[in-house]
Structures are given as structure tokens and as C-alpha cells.
Amino acid sequence: MESRGTKREAGKIEVAEPWNKLPRPAPSLPTDPALYSGPFPFYRRPSELGCFSLDAQRQYHGDARALRYYSPPPTNGQSPNFDLRDGYPDRYQPRDEEVQERLDHLLRWLLEHRGQLEGGPGWLAGAIVTWRGHLTKLLTTPYERQEGWQLAASRFQGTLYLSEVETPAARVQRLTRPPLIRELMYMGYKFEQYMCADKPGVSPDPSGEVNTNVAFCSVLRSRLGNHPLLFSGEVDCTDPQAPSTQPPTCYVELKTSKEMHSPGQWKSFYRHKLLKWWAQSFLPGVPNVVAGFRNPEGFVCSLKTFPTMEMFEYVRNDRDGWNPSVCMNFCAAFLSFAQNTVVQDDPRLVYLFSWEPGGPVTVSEHRDAPHAFLPPWVRSTCKDGGCWEPADSFPASPPAQPCPRTSTRWWYSGSSSSDWSDSRKRSRSISFWICILSRSFRATWAHPLPHLAVLARWKL
């Protein structure tokens, strides 16, 4: 009698591979909103660590020289009548989108300020470093039905870095962008020119060139669940008349949208566009989005302020609307998925997380070009125990102008420090059970993260 674990073919007996030697399917993360509908996770209110600016040539400056000041027109109930087509294309200098900046500007800021981080340089060892825009894509993924994404991830000296990779579909869309879309993009920047001044107390000057190379970026620290976050995002302007002048609560996000005429158009706006506005502003703690609604001729016919913390109210009773808890729970699940996947500390090793609407997040492993994104000057600077000290070959920044800073510690949930302690205990408990479930589910080739909703119901 043949022993169990063998198979016969063409008169020969072959020993079957043990189950644990068989190739396993690549891990994946589902994106179904129903899996992430638990309680809202802990999210520490972001605090600004610093800032940097990019000039008209896209050169880095470690100061706030590009910060603009919110200066809306005194409409007195009348239409502002901004001509968003004015200056197009003669006074338009768009950024070269072929240049892949990746995390370079944020890494430059880290090189200059690592020793000044609260908690010391060692705080970064367990943190996730990325752009705000990448986190925004994660928040909106459960409800996105059109555009996929790819995120490259590498671990270096304990820190997990996430950098977006342009998908083939996105590249084709960018290269074949119709003239109308390019003009609409210009209108968004032109609206900022009408609403912002270079100095406080000064009126905006919309007669100048619209140069999208110029940017002011805030660098923020936060925590989602048990994931420390350090991320940066572009800021449109600061409001000198805000109740608090401490960033990021003094910042204002500016947006444009087409004029709405029917309840159906407003419902679609609340379901789709307002979701992206909420995600983009909630992450860095920007309290208000000011929208300019344009008519078909390209003139702004009305202005409306959307407080970030009130946006969900527009879809709360809409069965097809979005839910902030789903967005944040999925983001937390993805960060856990990435942390558990990218375990090897090697900047040349890249894990590419890919997602297309209707499917799960998948991951593939790559080495070196073209996916490696941590620049050589970071790796060479951090060798031989001299991590993050300025390299001789790295140009020094010009004399820095002070950035708006805040040392206030508070949390988005409005919780006290004791609540924060309880949240950390819950996070550690959930992490423990994720670890246990991971070991159990590996035997069945499943991933434990979809069961986070179950863990939440256990109130761990």
C-alpha cells in the first residue's frame, strides 16, 4: 500500500510536496466598505512640525516664503464674477509632470530637521512617512469606482516610506488629456489667485502669471490607531482672521466646482466630490474648504464655505453616501497590511501595492529600478551610523524664515490624555489579536485584516 502523501503517474510513485512547501497566493486586502463599517478609529489631531516652500523653478526652500494669505472679496451678497479663464494659456506656467519628485522634498525637510523632532530621531523608527495625497487616496478607496492606484513601499532604518507610482492608465490619461480638462485645471489655480494675497492685509493681484511650480507645504505629525504618521501636504493659504492663528487650524483649502441647478446634481456632488474634499482636509486638520462655483462661461457665480467637520452631514441619511468611519478604518487596515508585509529593512527592496476598482489590494515584490524611490543621497547619508546628518554633497538651504508652528497637543476626537492612553491600550490589544489571527489564518492562506470589524465589536 502506498503511503499517504504520494501520487501515482505513468507507473511511477512521486512524493507530493508538503502543504507548507506549496506556492501560496500573494496576500491581498479587500476593499468592500461593509468590512470597515465599525466605530471610528482613533486619529490624533495633527500637529504641524514645520514647513517648506517650492519656488517658481520648483527649488526647495526650508521656510514659509510661498505661504499666501486668504483675502476673499467683499461680495455683499453679489456674485464675485471672477473670470477663471483670464490669462489662459498666455500667463500659465504648469509644472512639468514628467519629473518624478516622489518623496524627495519631504526627505530633504527630514534631513534638515530630524534632530528637532519631538521624541528625538528615534521616533521615526516606527513611523510611516508619506504625502497627504497618498493617504487621501487610501481614505477614498472603498468608494472609488473609476481610478486605481499604486503605492510603492520600502522600509529603511525602521521607517516605512510610501510613495505613489503612476499607473499605466493614469499615464495614458495624462498624456491624452483633452484641452477642456487642461483649462479646468487652470481654473482651479486661477481661483486661488483671486482669493489669496502675498501679504496679510493686501488685496489679491490676479494679473500675474499662474505658476503651478510654486507651493507651500506643511509637515505634520499624527497617529492613526497604532500607526505614527509623518506626512506633508500642500496648503493653499492661511487665514489671518481665523479664530486661532495656530496651524493647521488657520489654513484654508480652496476648490472650484461647476454650478449646480438641481437636487440630483447636489446629491452627486455630496456623494463624490465632497468625499474627496473631506478626506483631503480632514487628514491635515484643515477646518474649512471654500468653494467657488463657476458657470459654463468660466465665471465664479457664488462662494460657499464647507466646514470639514460638517461635510458628513450632507450624506448622513443617504444610503448610497460615504461614511468617515469606513474611510479611516480602511486606511488603518491598509497601514497594518503594509507594516506586516514590508518587514525587511532594505531601501532597495520595494513592495508595490496595486488596486483597481472592484478588486482587492494586491502586492508584488521588486528590487532596485524602476520602483526603488529612496534617493541615493538619503541612503549614503544614513550609512555608518551617521543617519540624517547633512551630507557634504547636499546643498544647504538658504537662511530660513520662520514657519508657523504649534506645540499644542490635542486630539481630533476631542479626547483627553486619559482617553489617548485607553486608545493606545486598545490599539495594542487589537495588534495582539491581529498577530494571533495572522498565524492562524496563514494556514488557510487568508488574511486577518478583514476581521478588524469583528475585533472592533469585541471592543478590544
Helix-residue proportion:
25-40%
Order of helices and strands: EEEEEEEHEHEEHHEEEEEEHEEHEEHHH
Q: Describe the biggest sheet?
A: 10 strands, mixed
Write down how many β-strands occur, each being a DSSP E stretch of 2 or more residues.
20
Please report which band the strand proportion falls in: under 5%, 5-15%, 15-25%, 25-35%, 35-45% or over 45%: 15-25%
Structural class: alpha+beta
Number of helices: 9
Compute the number of structural domains.
1
Low-pLDDT sequence parts: 1-22, 388-400, 404-411, 414-460
The largest sheet has its strands arranged as: 3-20-19-9-10-8-14-13-4-5
Radius of gyration: 24 Å
Give the overall silhouette. globular
First and last CA, distance: 52 Å
Overall mean pLDDT: 84
Textual characterization of the structure:
It is found in: Nucleus. Its cofactor is Mg(2+). This is Decapping nuclease. GO terms for molecular function: metal ion binding; mRNA 5'-diphosphatase activity; nuclease activity; nucleotide binding; RNA binding. Its EC number is 3.6.1.-. The chain is an alpha+beta fold and 460 residues long. The chain has one domain. Helices cover 26% and strands 23% of the residues. The model is unreliable at 1-22, 388-400, 404-411 and 414-460 (pLDDT under 50).
